Amino acid sequence: MSVDVQHGQQGINGIWSSRWIFILAATGSAVGLGNLWKFPYVAGEHGGGAFVLVYVVCIALIGIPILLAEVMLGRRGRMSPINSMLYLAKESNVSRWWSCIGYTGVLAGLLTLSFYSVVAGWSLHYVVLSLTNKLYQISATDSKLVFNALLKDPWQLIFWHTVFMLLTISVVGAGVIKGLGRAISIMMPLLFILLFVLLGYSTFVGDFEAGWRFLFSFDTSKLTWASILDALGHAFFTLSVGMGVMIAYGAYMPEKKASLGRTVLAVTVLDTLIALMVGLAIFSIVFANPSIKLSSGPGLLFVSLPVAFGNMVMGQLFAVIFFLLVAIAALSSAISLIEPAVAWLVEYKGYKRYRLVFVLGFIIWCIGLGSVFSFNYWSELKLFGKTFFESLSFLTANILLPVGGLLTALFVGWRMDRDSVIDEVGDIQRGPYRWWFRVLRFVSPVLLMIVFLTSLW
Ligand code: PHE
After folding, report:
1. Model confidence over 406-431: pLDDT tens digits?
2. In a mutational test of the pocket of ligand 1, which residue from 37, 238, 364, 396 has the highest number of ligand atoms less than 8 Å from its CB?
3. Distance, CA 237 to ligand 1 centroid (Å)?
4. Most buried residue, 103, 169, 207, 350, by most Cβ within 10 Å?
């Protein structure tokens, strides 16, 4: 690659209009499908409160340190993850190979979006099903049939995948300020409102006490090594680190003086709070109907919940609200998955953003077809016992993400010019940043290695 990397190319892609927009955009990226179905279910299964505690420790030991490192890399590099890393490697007098953090991130982001969009499409389908009263008083058997029918119908899946990709590219194509920034400032408040309405509803109509007990009762007997590993991996995925997304978003941060530590903490607290609130709402609603069998993974959202809503007062209205919430959360994550690649191509080739986004979107859409078919035509086609969809999700979440995070921790902790680090975050000899830097150097890499090796195992 022959770009002459210069610091100060800042602004080619744009700058957030305020630090708040950065916080909202980063939170929008962090809050996604991971929070909505993975966290509640995994927490409940692995001993509720005990798991939540382990998860919070993991967030503190790898999530926050790497998130802070990524945002710092972006704010200093001021460009797309790839070019920021090229610039920072040069500034620190180390090999250009460190830019592979940017390349693996871009690749992981595009691959993740290809299947994320397919799943996000399901939620759009369920918005329409609830709007048209198709889930009214639905039985458990029928709910399963409805979901299976969707998965077995490639045309429906392709339709919703297309709609979701079109939404994503129309936001990203409009640019950082008019596209991402504007969409975020509409979507995030809407997401908070929907979430509060849903939580209010679940307190009145659902079995809030049972939901609370399931999520927070402290049962250490269910806490195993596997659950600790799950907590580690999830802490990482939920904060959107390891993909360069936060480097890209950090590059659009406006003022230099804002405290990175406080900004990153705000994002983390919001992400965790939202995960817990969603969990409480989901379980209170599901447990309101004792006959419902709790299903895991997508089944929790798309099979169990529709049954619960279908048999509750005003259930259809709140089902619409819930699936809209899922779609919005997914969209605010999806735009962040494609942005690093787009930003890089805009800097590298100087092409018009909307044209690039369209081409890139089309490529991702095509890869997504593989995931669509893995639920029907190709359901028997397996690689190491995994379908195309499962293999992609494994490759990104269990391999590319931890590797990206590990390299980030090693670069900032060991190779990056120390004065630049100090210039960005402040004193790393004293106070909270001292802890941050130590954890980043010694603890996060070890934990990441463990996640990576055990998932390979
Ligand atoms: N954090 C998102 C979620 O919880 C997923 C994501 C990962 C988004 C990495 C962007 C980058 O669903």
Report:
1. 999 999 999 999 999 998 888 888 88
2. 238
3. 6
4. 169
